[in-house]
Design a protein that fits this description.
Bound molecules: S-adenosylmethionine
CATH topology: Rossmann fold
Shape: globular
Strand order of the largest sheet: 6-7-5-4-1-2-3-8
CATH superfamily: Vaccinia Virus protein VP39
Structural class: alpha/beta
Strand content: 15-25%
Largest sheet: 8 strands, mixed
Helix content: 25-40%
Mean pLDDT: 88
CATH class: Alpha Beta
Low-confidence stretches: 220-231
Radius of gyration: 19 Å
Length: about 250
């Protein structure tokens, strides 16, 4: 399957393994990952957040709305889907208390100022039990046919909107620091294995960090009583652009 689907399948595996009830996807784009996840019976709340209204509207609303089949054969547990226009580096109290937050090909689109805010918002404030972050692996880039190491001053980027592409070492250095600061463990993996003719170890095309909160009881006391937290710091800057209930 194409690489983007391999990333979604990776998240589906995580959902199968950990059975999260509340899942949020930051930088959800056309919300295709949410369409993949709505079929998991354990999931009761699915949230997508993206900065751009345009990219949210590109997706076909019908795919996230209940179908006739959903009425004929209803789910055992209710499912609520909400899409917000908002930024992954802005706190919104409706994102508190999640079991899983995914950021698939998001961080490389953040400028240095936003990248610096990102850990405090996602790990410090939203503080979900699990975080999955994927980003391009620059070590793999020499395998792209248009990669030109001799072009003076140029840095090869897979997409002109990428503010950076990190080597495995750079990503792991950043991720380990974040994990340490916010008391998570992190494991590294990826999708998109290199072709057999690659003659050195370049790693996966997409690198992935899976972060697990070390003491779910600790900072998440706020998760047990989200209302108290909401009234204390009830930021709600995100704008609802779509809602569906199953
Ligand atoms: N996650 C989707 C996927 O895998 O198909 C889309 C990935 S796309 C490469 C990156 C997305 O991040 C875009 O939809 C972009 O609008 C969004 N984005 C960029 N900066 C953001 C921010 N600060 N907060 C939320 N979304 C952001």
């Amino acid at each position: 399957p194409p690489l983007y689907k391999q990333r979604y399948f990776f998240v589906k595996e995580i959902v199968n393994q950990y059975k999260p009830k509340k899942v949020a996807d930051l930088g959800c784009g056309s919300a295709t990952l949410l369409c993949f996840l709505k079929h998991h019976s354990c999931v009761q709340e699915l949230v997508g957040v993206d900065l751009l209204m345009d990219s949210l509207l590109v997706w076909n609303r019908d795919r996230l709305s209940p179908l006739v089949a959903d009425h004929i054969d209803p789910r055992d547990l209710d499912l609520r889907i909400v899409l917000y226009r908002g930024s992954a580096v802005e706190e919104d109290s409706r994102l508190l208390g999640f079991d899983l937050i995914t950021c698939i090909e998001l961080i490389e689109h953040l400028d240095s100022e936003d990248l610096a805010k990102f850990p405090e918002v996602v790990f410090g404030y939203f503080s979900p039990t699990l975080v999955v972050i994927s980003t391009p692996n620059a070590d793999y880039n020499p395998l792209f046919p248009d990669y030109n190491p001799l072009s003076p001053g140029s840095t090869f980027r897979r997409n002109p909107d990428h503010k950076f592409e990190w080597s495995r070492e750079q990503f792991q250095h950043w991720a380990l620091n974040v994990a340490k600061r916010y008391k998570y463990s992190v494991e590294f993996t990826g999708v998109g294995a290199p072709p057999p003719w690659a003659n050195k170890d370049v790693g996966y095309c997409t690198q992935i960090g899976v972060f697990k909160k070390k003491q779910p009881g600790c900072r998440s006391c706020i998760l047990v009583k989200p209302d108290a937290r909401v009234s204390e710091r009830g930021e709600r800057p995100y704008e609802v652009v779509f809602k569906a209930s199953f």
